[in-house]
């Protein structure tokens, strides 16, 4: 599962993580989706806010399998 964090350099932290509803077949597909979603969101945010808050996205892909 893909977990995305919206972060700010100015605030020196990240917000509440958001879990993508989609489950990916492989780690590679998940990590690529994380990059694509991050770019899409950044392109749709107000550039002044992105620059002022120095926003960035962090993400991780975690297995949904139980041992």
Description of the structure:
With 67 residues, this protein is of the alpha+beta class. The protein has helices spanning 27-44, 47-53; strands at residues 2-8, 13-14, 18-19, 55-61. Strands 1, 2, 3 and 4 form a four-stranded antiparallel β-sheet that branches. Strand 1 and strand 2 form a beta hairpin.
What overall geometry do the principal axes of the alpha carbons give? elongated
Helix and strand composition category? alpha+beta
- Count of beta strands: 4
Kindly state the percentage of residues in helix: 25-40%
Oligomer: single chain
Gap between N and C termini = 16 Å
Specify Rg, calculated over alpha carbons.
13 Å
Mean pLDDT: 91
* Main sheet makeup: 4 strands, antiparallel
Q: Count of DSSP helices?
A: 2
What is the succession of H and E elements?
Answer: EEEHHE
Our estimate of the beta-strand percent is: 25-35%
List low-pLDDT spans. none
List the defining traits of the structure above.
67 residues, alpha+beta, 2 helices, 4 strands, 37% helix, 27% strand
Summarize this entry quickly:
By secondary structure, this protein is α+β, with helices and mostly antiparallel strands. The protein contains 2 helices and 4 strands; from the N terminus they run E-E-E-H-H-E.
What is the secondary structure topology, with strand pairs?
Blueprint: E1 2-8, E2 13-14, E3 18-19, H1 27-44, H2 47-53, E4 55-61
Antiparallel strand pairs: 1-2, 1-3, 1-4
């Amino acid at each position: 599962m893909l977990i995305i964090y919206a972060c700010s350099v100015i605030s020196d932290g990240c917000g509440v993580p958001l879990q993508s509803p989609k489950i990916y077949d492989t780690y590679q597909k998940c990590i690529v989706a994380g990059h694509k979603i991050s770019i899409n969101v950044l392109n749709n945010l107000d550039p002044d806010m992105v620059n002022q808050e120095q926003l960035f996205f962090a993400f991780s892909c975690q297995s949904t399998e139980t041992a």
